[in-house]
Amino acid sequence: MKNAIDQLIEKIKQTNNPTVLGLDPRYHILPTCLTSKYPQTITGACKAILEFNQELINATYDIIPAVKPQIAFYEMFGVEGIQTFQKTCEYAKQKGMIVIADSKRGDIGSTAEGYSSAFLGKTTIGQQQHSIFDVEFITLNPYQGIDAIKPFLEDAKKYGKGMFILLKTSNPSSSEIQDLITNKGTTIYQEVAKLVNQWGQDLIGENGYSAVSAVVGATQPIQLQELRQILPHTYFLIPGYGAQGGKAKDIALGFDSKGLGGIVNASRSLMCAYQAENWKQQYTQEQFAQATRQEAIRMRDELNQAIQENIKKQ
Q1: Which residues of 167-177 are buried (b: 16+ CB within 10 A; e: fewer)?
Q2: Where are the beta strands (DSSP E) in the chain?
Q3: What are phi and psi of 208, to 5 degrees?
Q4: Do residues 49 and 25 make contact, with C-beta atoms less than 8 angstroms apart?
Q5: 241 vs 163, 218, 264, 277, CA distance in Å?
Q6: Higher pLDDT, 45 or 177
Q7: Distance from CA of residue 188 to its chain's centroid?
Q8: CA 44 to CA 50: how far, in whole Å?
Q9: How far is CA 167 from CA 60, 125, 143, 223, 229, in A?
Q10: Burial of residue 62 (number of CB atoms within 10 Å: 0-12, 13-18, 19+)
Q11: Which CATH superfamily is domain 4-313 in?
Q12: I need a labelling partner for 307 at 20 to 30 A (CA). Which of 17, 127, 167, 232 fits?
């Protein structure tokens, strides 16, 4: 059984595209051609969101290897929102895409076991085991230590799944905690990097990368380059491209000499491509999915060029 990181790398190679489509569908960003089809109710909003997600997946599944639905944008609609999250994950998997559940779980003990059972493992009822969300990856917050990570490690080994652990994030205030100097003279994020490396030793796959991966923001190029050098077996989920200001030339610093090592998330710039200046003259709002496809191709080509230029410098 290939572990999750090998599955992801295989899809990246197949599509020649180190990107992930972030599905963070706030109702107000949906085109009116969708929102006008359904009542302005929780049920109607969830139907519009699901159709939006499915159309974006239909338009990109052959050129983008993975999707990353952020669960907060579904939880805000309650039970029906969670059902929409699950249906989105299932639909993406049916289309052959890798699914990264962006839920940033980080609790301990039986609570962590429950989260892991829902996303990576199985829920046991009597003699039967049931897969719930059954995604390939989940994002995790490590700040309660190994107690918060251990159940996910166990399920990752058992079911061939993986995780992306918050390491150096893209938000401006991340430095308030992550850059603090410890009594060892290192930063907190550097100490977390050591733990990520340690936790991932038993889950290194055939491509030399561990299924215990890390989140490192595109807006932190110096740290991205530093962490690439000290974490040779850790794959990076790199948020912050596009709307948050991350540049392709900076993101390329997170990749290795083979052009692997990172997958770059874009949410707003892909989902809302139909509103962007360079596409809205070519595509109507009814063609929102086609605009997303064209922006995905543009992003892919820009990143690949920057990665190849960085390889030449190594």
Answers
A1: bbbbeeebbee
A2: 19-23, 66-69, 98-105, 123-125, 128-130, 137-140, 162-168, 210-216, 234-238, 262-266
A3: 85, 5
A4: yes
A5: 20, 6, 7, 17
A6: 45
A7: 23
A8: 10
A9: 29, 35, 10, 10, 15
A10: middle
A11: Aldolase class I (3.20.20.70)
A12: 167
Which tokens belong to 311? 């390889």
| Report field, pTM of the whole predicted structure over 0.85 | yes
User: 78: phi > 0 → left, psi -120 to 50 → alpha, else beta; which?
Assistant: left
Residue 309 CA to residue 267 CA, distance in Å, equals 25
Report pLDDT digits (tens) over 196-255. 999 999 999 999 999 999 999 887 788 889 999 999 999 999 998 866 667 888 899 999
Dist CA 214 CA 226 (whole Å): 13
Beta-carbon count within 10 A of 312 CB:
7
Residue entry with tokens 């997600």: 53
For the chain, the domains span: 4-313
Instruction: Give residue 68's identity as a one-letter amino acid code.
Output: K
The tokens describing 271, both together, are: 């989902």
Q: Is 258 a catalytic residue?
A: no
Give the pLDDT of residue 1: 66
Q: Which two tokens stand for residue 256?
A: 């290795």
Q: Which residues contact 313 (CB under 8 A, 6 or more apart)?
A: none
Residues 264 and 303: beta-carbon distance below 8 Å: yes
pLDDT, one tens digit per residue, over 28-71 is: 999 999 999 999 999 999 999 999 999 999 999 999 999 999 99
CB-CB contact of 260 with 250 (8 Å): no
Per the CB < 8 A criterion, the answer to whether 151 and 161 are in contact is no
**Which pair of tokens denotes residue 139?**
């994002």
